[in-house]
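Reference record:
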Amino acid sequence: MHAKAKPARKPLLLWFDLSGNGAAAHCIPAFEAHCRIRLADSANGLDELALTPRPDMLCLQFDRPDSIGLNLLLEIKRRAPELPITMLTVQHSEELAVWAFRAGVWEFLTLPLPGAERQRYLQSLHELCLLRDAPPGVQRQRPQRTPQLPECVRLNREKHAQQPLYAAISHIDSHFRERIDEKGMAELCGMSTARFSRLFKQTCGIGFQDYVMRKRMQAAEELLLNSDIPVSSVGYMMGFKDPSYFARAFRQFFGYSPSVCRSLGRPLAAPATEKQPATASSALPHEEEGAGTAFRA
């Protein structure tokens, strides 16, 4: 008899909410289906680094990073250099990203986090856990964290690969909210349905129906995050006649409901706080006037 494969454990994340407005409550639900999450205590967050079980990842969530929060990150790195750090931030810049990676941050994510980027991160996190859990003597292979090419480069490369499918892809990108028939798209490109389906998957990496669904879900996510259009109306706009089917499809694609997605784009208003005296090292990135955090180590 074959032994049953041991189910993959969920990574344990120690989450530091440095937003100053409780925004972690809106961000964490997107990860809870795939991870165990322990929210760091605002007064004793550094002490929790020594608790068992030790976390697989330290997540520091910012709204507008300031000197207090970034110095805390450096202190965490000094106390627990073996624990990887993910930095999540709403406000971001090239200078801040460069500083983060020079400080030894494992991953730098900008909020709100698109579904595809979240899936890529979770996959990398899963591979990191497999690496750490490998028994002694077993050769450990580092996770393959190959990032997507920058948009400007990727589009130039894909333009050539998609040339035979240009008419269909152009039509889908303009009419994905409508009912689109694969056979009609094959005829538009002068191909049989079988050849079109095979070439489409080879070129785009996913099947025709999945491509259309991805376009709809990404557009729906954009509307939910950046507009006040009711959830049911967003579904209708994306071609879903049944609101419950839209909600199920959205949850299946992103891992959380449309309502949770909407909340991710609406952090709570930050309470007024007294301006703190500057304590930043000159190595920290430039801090804008008025940026602040409620976290205290």
Q: What stands out?
A: Residues 115-133 form the longest helix (19 residues). The first strand starts at residue 12 and ends at 17. Residues 151-155, 267-282, 286-297 have pLDDT under 50 and may be disordered.
